[in-house]
């Protein structure tokens, strides 16, 4: 499980960085002085290449997501099955909680009645 959360956080970071990299490219290309100097051209080229690389990496991650090989209809069936299973489990938990409270209530009544008997048994006869 730890590797899954690590993989998810890595892929999330890749997607989150895309917008920042795109903004960087746009800011560099939209400067009032343009990209007339060799330094500005180099900066735009580097930023563009970083964005392309990140975009390619994000596309690869999206393509390799688990379940991505399923058709939409198959994914819908799996979601429906899991939703039904979840609902059954919730119903079982509600039933269990109800039974549990009934057992606790019956147990308390039994303890109360035992205490009454015990208190009567310890009272000396007159």
Description of the structure:
- GO terms for molecular function: transcription coregulator activity.
- Keywords: Activator, Nucleus, Transcription, Transcription regulation.
- One of its GO terms (biological process) is regulation of transcription by RNA polymerase II.
- It is found in: Nucleus.
- Pfam families: Med9.
- The structure is a single chain.
- By secondary structure, this protein is an all-alpha fold.
- The chain has 2 domains: 1-66; 68-126.
- The radius of gyration is 33 Å and the shape is elongated.
- The chain contains 3 helices and no strands.
- Helix 1 (2-29) packs antiparallel against helix 2 (38-63).
In short:
The protein has 126 residues and is mainly alpha-helical. The protein is built from 3 helices and no strands.
